[in-house]
Fold these 3 entries.
Entry 1:
Amino acid sequence: MKLLNKKKNVIVLVIVSLIMIVLLGEDQLTIVKETELVREVLAQKFPSEAEKRQRIALWVVQHFEGPEPIKTIEVGKFESYGFLGTGGRGVSVRINKKEYNTMSLQLVKDSPNGGFGIHKANEFHFEKQNDKNLKGVEVKLWRSDNG
């Protein structure tokens, strides 16, 4: 008797599922489209680490000038300070693979607008030039020896 009831329940469930699929078929496509839209919006609001490194590198190229052209920018890992990031965020950057051309950037919403600190022997000085781009500049992830 129980086996018969289970079979009936399964058959009813399959029929109801098929009816729902037929009735909601077009709505399913809408849900898929909306899901794709949500993914695109999230990708814009929360860029990947590589996109963040590109933004940081562009900011460095547009705000620093030195005796030689910038060929390589190494961007370190994004660090959060304080409890749950309440102390702010920062990132270290090295220009042209030279240890003395390092700087620490304080980030505001993943943009280095909060200030910076540079190594005292740094060859590059602050000079804002918004017309520059990353053409000819290699952007890498900087993996420091101690982290």
Entry 2:
Amino acid sequence: MAGRNGDMVSGARTRRRLPGRGATVGAVLAAGVAGALTTALTTALTTASPAKADILYDILDPILTPILTATTDVLAGIDPAAAADLTSFFDASGLSLATTDPAAALAAAVTADPASGAGSNVAIPLHVAETTEPYVDVSVNGGSQVPVLVDTGSSGLVIPWQDVGLSNLLGLGFPTGAGISGYSGGVDYFYVTFDTTVDYGGVLTTSSTPVDVELFSWPTSATSPADFQQFLADDEVDGILGVGSNDAGPGTSPLEAAGYPGVLVDEPAGELVVGANTAATPAEVTVSGAPLANLQVSINGAAPVPVTGDIDSGGVYGTMPQSVTDSLPAGTTITVYDNGGQQLYSYVTTATNDPTLVSASSDLDTGYVPFAQYPIYVDYTNDTTTFDLPS
């Protein structure tokens, strides 16, 4: 996950992330303020004393750089020469458009927090709301515990600033980055990243790990929720804990950044286990990719059809490409296999538990169903997903 498909079809809801994007909506917004922000920063840096200028640069550069990068990325698709000129202008203003490197940020976080990369396993209490919403409680920088959706379909811990708390937010220090991201059918938002301490359910604490604090948001359509909080209101959560590996949006999993080899989403046992795969079985099946993987799907026993699958604990009821079927009435049997034909899970749709039909070119989103049936392990080291099927 991490977003909702705006239209409701047969009661189905889906989510997906829009990874760290310089997308059109965000970039247009950025373009509207980029010139003014750059001018203000340049003026401040050139008129302030050297010591104050250094402080201003440290505070503003990580915030402005992603906005300006999004602007030039979109402009490059329209007018490459103008984009090059704009990049040169920003560089001349003292801003580097290559400072937000996710790989570098991840490496730095792991280096800063090596203790949590040890071999011990920690079981964090995992709850499920509304049948489809797995969540854990987290505390940022010693603040109050807040429920966050456990989402294998995205990466990064995203929490609105209101749930971090203003006084707590001011104690986080300088941001390490910023960006614009969003969730389909829901909201786009601007976030600032801090490296700070995160407590998970009172049983695990990691330090110097990235937290994306949502500062403001806006709806993506006239029918979308008005803001980030309304977007999550029906889910009984206040934020999103993206624990996926290869999807890159909007950041990196704080647990991966803390040096852990993987996470086990074990809904049947009510645990999110950080560390090794403690539910491994002789019948387990491992697929390459986390969450995106090459899968096959069969409808009512028909020949399996190859699809790109999004193994997505936050995907609610999931999605089904119309290239597979154009109808999913109640009573339809859906069976999903790995790329080699090994069955991963199967279920029968109902009036409410049915995937949303999406365009033929879209991915299959598993939604919550396989996570409700078996423990599923996300392996950061090998970029794989393991279904711990019963022997």
Entry 3:
Amino acid sequence: MKKIYFFILFFIFVLVVVYPVSAENKLVNIEKAEVDQYGLALFDPLFINQQKLEQLMDNLDKQLYKEPQNATISDNDKIIDGKPGLAIDREKFQINFRERFYNSEDEKLKVPMRKVYPRVDRSLLEEIRGKELGNYVTYYKENNKERSHNISLAATAINNYVLFPGETFSFNQVVGKRTKEKGYKRAPVIVRGELAEDIGGGICQVSSTLFNAVNLKGIQIVERYTHSREVPYVPPGKDATVSWWGPDFVFKNMYNQPILIRAFSKNGKMNIRIYSSESATYFKGNTT
């Protein structure tokens, strides 16, 4: 694997990370901290401010961090392996930093990296795809291109999502803010009982389909709101309206196993299926 290098000049360390300490200069940048706060001998020529070092590592991590990719299931039901990410090995970095600063004249420091493995891998998907817990279908008119497009985007956002035992699923957080930049279009929405148009119109059909798919004994509905008027794609009272600045649809996994959400939107059909392990059971008495 190609190693990642990030070069740090020691004169920057002196200004930002390291403060001089000596018998002649008994204070460490008196505006910031007193020497005795760190419990260091006054004759020590240098000491490292741990807080500054942590900030340095945080900044490096922001630049070099590579997020891992979860394993997923394709539309033809084949598992696609995930990929590990990368993060700074903070323990090794601190050791290397101290050794290089105190004992070496080299002005460049190699940043050690470690692999970050995804939470969802092939073996987990193979385990939790075996038992269908819920399945719900709704229908929409394909000739409304903008609304159909929004439904497809939201369905893709929740597809392959794995919710672990005890965790909560927030539709707004998982799908994210519906914006033009993300590809969402203006389409009909219901506002105070009246039809209007807004960015992301139609995604409530996805959240409503999801509600009916997860309306199971092992799922606790934490937050759900109905529209201010009936919608045509689900029976009265079986909908779940969502809005980025308003209502959300939230539920909690009360099963003893992770659950997998599979969402498909094609040819005017919105289908959501919920899967888990064959050994999945729920904690009785804790659901709504």
